[in-house]
Design goal:
This protein is mostly beta strands. The chain has one domain: monomeric porin ompg (Porin, Beta Barrel). The chain has no helices and twelve strands. It has a twelve-stranded antiparallel beta barrel. It starts with 13 loop residues before the first strand and ends with a strand.
Length: 197
Amino acid sequence: MLLPTAYTHPKGTFYLTSYDVVLLQAGYAFTDDTQVSVTALPIATESFTVLDFSLKTVLVRSGLVRVAAIGSVSGGVGKDIGVEFVGRVGGVGQLCLDRRCDSSFSLSSNLTLVGAPIMANGVGGIWRVGRTVSLLAELATLVPLSGSGLAEFNGAALGGGVRFHLVHWGFDVALVRALNSAGSVVPLLTATYRSSP
C-alpha cells in the first residue's frame, strides 16, 4: 500500500500511481534493477507542493530473497518558503513465499540525513489469494533519534486491504488507522498504471 518492497519494474517500464486522487507518483525503470520515481502533493490553497524524488536499486535477488537500497530527497517548493529538501537513505528486505514472489513479507527502514534524525520502519505482507486478488497488511512506525524523544516510540499506523491485479492496471482498496488514543480510520484508494517494457 504505502511501504516499499524490494521489487523493481522491468527495464523500460514507466508507471503512474494515484493515492486518493491527490497524491501522484510517476516512475521509470532504467534497468531491471534500478528505477526512479517522483511523488507530488500539490496544495493549491497554499501555493505549495510537497515533492519526493527516490532512486531504488536491487542489491540482492537470489532465490526467495530480495534486498534493495533507496536514496531519496523529500521536501517542498512554495512561494513563501522557496525550495526546502531533506535527504533520506533506506533499505528494504523482502522474503518471497513463492518463485514469482506473488506473496511475500517485507521489512523496511528509512533515515533522514539532516535536521532532527528520524527513523521510519515498516513491515508488510502481500498474500496472493487468486489470479487477480491479493490481501495486504502493513505496520509502520516512526522513531526520533535525537532530542527529548530520543529512541521513543513516536507513532505507528496499521493498514490492511485488497489489491486487484489486471494486465496494466492495479487497484488497492484499504483502511489505515493511526495507533494512538484518537486514531481514526482513513480509507486509502490507489490506482496504478504500468506500461509494457
